[in-house]
Task: structure prediction
Amino acid sequence: MLSVALDPKDAFKSFNACDICSLAKKFYSSDFSDQEMIHMEYELQHYEFDVPKDPKFHNLSTLGELCQKLVEVGKSNVYPLIDRLIRLVLTLPVSTATTERAFSAMKIIKTSLCNKMEDGFLTDYMIVYIEKEIARRFTTDMIIDDFYFMKQRRAQLKK
Result:
C-alpha cells in the first residue's frame, strides 16, 4: 500500500518520495492541482532531510501521531501539502467504510417489498440499522417518554 511510504515507524525507514507522489496522483488527484503536485515533489525533498532528523519526530509509530506532531511543532505550515495528504490518507478509510456500510444496509433494507419507501423514512431506518449497537440501548418506554415530552398531545399516552 502506498500510504506506508508516509509511515514514521523506525525513523521513517519506509519513506519514499516517489511512492508518496504516486499516492497523491492516484487517489487524490482532485484534491491537488497540477501545480501543487509539482510543488509537493520539492516539499517532499525538504521534508525528507528535515523531519526524520528532528528529535521531536523520533519514536512516532502511527500516521496519526505524525499528523499531530507536525501541527504541534508548526511544521504543518512549512509542509502544507504533505500535511493535507496525511489528513486525506487518515480520513479515507473512515469515509470508505461508512459508504460501504451504507450501501450494504440499503441492499438489505430496500427489498422489492419495501421499494416504495420515502427517502426520509429510508434514511432514518438505515441509521438505526447501521448503528444497531446504539439503537439497542433504547427501550420502548424511553422512546415513548421522549415523544410524550416533545409537545402536548390530544390523547394521553401515559397514565
About this structure: DSSP finds nine helices and no strands in the chain.
